[in-house]
C-alpha cells in the first residue's frame, strides 16, 4: 500500500497537532501516509475507552498507521492485541524518538536507543502479534551520540518493514541542526526503506532527498499552518489567499466536529501559524486568544483571512 519507489510523503506524529482534523486536511492535499499522535501503550491498555478516540481515522486515511510508545514487552503485546481488533489500521509504529522527559523516565521513546536489545525485542513483539500490514519504527540518531546506523539492520532483522529517522539525537532536542548526512548513513546500513525526518520544508526537500538517498520524507512542523505542503511538493502547486481562507474555515469546522466547543481553545495554536505573513497577525493572535464564542471565532477568521489582506 505504500509505494516506496515513488518517494512517499508522510505526516509526522505530532503531539497536540496531528489529530484527526489535521490528518484529514493533509490527506486531502496529497499526503501519502498519516500516522496517529503518539499513544501510550499503558494508556491504551489501562485507559482503553478514553484512549480509543485517538485511533479514530478519516475515510481518506489509507494507509493509516498507529504510533505507540512504551518499554514493557507485555504491555506492548496487549496494546497490539487491542489494535488488532480494529480494521482500517495498516500498521503499528513504535516510537523510539520522543525526547520528552516524562516519556524518557519510563524508558520509552528515545530512551530505548540506549538499550538496542530491548528495542529489537519490542519490535519483534509487535511484528509477531500484529495482524497489520506494516511494523515500523521511528527513531532519532541516538540518545547522546549518533549511533542509529549501528542498529538499523538489527531493527530490520527484528521485523521492521521500514524506519523513519529524525536527524537529531535526543540531546539535540528540536533545536540542534538536523544531520542529513547521518540519516544517509542509516539508509546505507540497511536493506529496508528509510524515511527522512527533521526540519523538512518546501525549500529543502529536494536537497534532503539528494543527501540522504532516502525512500521518502516525513514532514512535521512545516505542515502546521501549511497542510497544503504535500501538494506543493508533489505538484509544485501553491494555494491562493482565497483558498487559504477556505482551508482555515474548513479546519475549524473539522475541529468543531471533533472537539465541540473545546475546539475554540485548541484551534488557537493553529491560527497563530496560519496568520504568519499576514498584516496585523500579532493583533489577530491576541484577539483569538480571548475569544470564547464559536460564532465570534468564525467571524474573526472570515475577516482576518480576507484575500485582500494577504501579502503572499
Automatic annotation (TrEMBL):
Key word Repeat present: no
Keyword line: Flavoprotein, FMN, NADP, Oxidoreductase, RNA-binding, tRNA processing, tRNA-binding
Coiled coil: none
Family: Belongs to the dus family.
Protein name, entry field: tRNA-dihydrouridine synthase
Reaction equation(s) it catalyzes: a 5,6-dihydrouridine in tRNA + NAD(+) = a uridine in tRNA + NADH + H(+); a 5,6-dihydrouridine in tRNA + NADP(+) = a uridine in tRNA + NADPH + H(+)
Enzyme's top EC category: oxidoreductase
EC number(s) per entry: 1.3.1.-
DUS-like FMN-binding domain boundaries: 11-303
Names of required cofactors: FMN
Function summary: Catalyzes the synthesis of 5,6-dihydrouridine (D), a modified base found in the D-loop of most tRNAs, via the reduction of the C5-C6 double bond in target uridines.
One Pfam family in the UniProt entry: Dus
Amino acid at each position: 500500500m505504500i509505494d516506496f519507489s515513488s518517494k512517499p510523503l508522510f505526516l509526522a506524529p505530532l503531539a497536540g497537532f496531528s489529530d484527526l482534523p489535521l490528518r484529514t486536511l493533509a490527506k486531502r492535499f496529497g499526503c501519502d501516509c498519516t500516522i496517529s499522535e503518539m499513544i501510550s501503550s499503558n494508556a491504551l491498555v489501562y485507559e482503553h475507552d478514553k484512549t480509543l478516540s485517538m485511533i479514530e481515522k478519516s475515510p481518506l486515511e489509507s494507509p493509516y498507521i498507529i504510533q505507540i510508545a512504551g518499554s514493557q514487552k507485555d504491555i506492548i503485546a496487549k496494546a497490539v492485541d487491542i489494535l488488532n481488533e480494529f480494521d482500517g489500521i495498516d500498521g503499528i509504529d513504535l516510537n523510539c524518538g520522543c525526547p520528552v522527559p516524562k516519556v524518557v523516565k519510563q524508558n520509552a521513546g528515545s530512551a530505548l536507543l540506549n538499550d538496542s536489545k530491548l528495542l529489537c525485542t519490542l519490535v519483534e513483539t509487535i511484528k509477531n502479534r500484529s495482524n497489520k500490514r506494516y511494523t515500523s519504527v521511528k527513531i532519532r540518531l541516538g540518545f547522546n551520540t549518533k549511533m542509529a546506523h549501528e542498529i538499523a539492520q538489527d531493527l530490520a532483522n527484528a521485523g521492521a518493514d521500514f524506519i523513519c529517522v529524525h536527524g537529531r539525537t535526543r540531546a539535540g532536542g528540536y533545536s540542534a541542526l538536523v544531520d542529513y548526512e547521518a540519516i544517509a548513513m542509516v539508509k546505507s546500513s540497511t536493506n529496508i526503506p528509510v524515511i527522512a525526518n527533521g526540519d523538512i520544508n518546501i525549500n529543502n526537500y529536494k536537497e534532503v532527498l539528494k543527501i540522504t538517498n532516502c525512500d521518502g520524507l516525513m514532514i512535521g512542523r512545516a505542515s502546521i499552518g501549511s497542510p497544503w505542503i504535500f501538494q506543493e511538493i508533489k505538484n509544485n502547486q501553491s494555494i491562493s489567499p482565497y483558498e487559504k481562507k477556505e482551508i482555515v474555515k474548513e479546519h475549524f469546522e473539522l475541529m468543531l466536529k471533533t472537539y465541540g466547543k473545546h475546539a475554540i481553545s485548541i484551534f488557537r495554536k493553529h491560527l497563530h501559524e496560519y496568520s504568519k505573513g499576514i498584516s496585523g497577525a500579532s493583533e489577530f493572535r491576541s484577539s483569538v486568544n480571548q475569544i470564547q464564542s464559536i460564532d465570534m471565532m468564525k467571524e474573526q477568521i472570515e475577516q482576518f483571512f480576507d484575500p485582500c489582506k494577504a501579502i503572499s
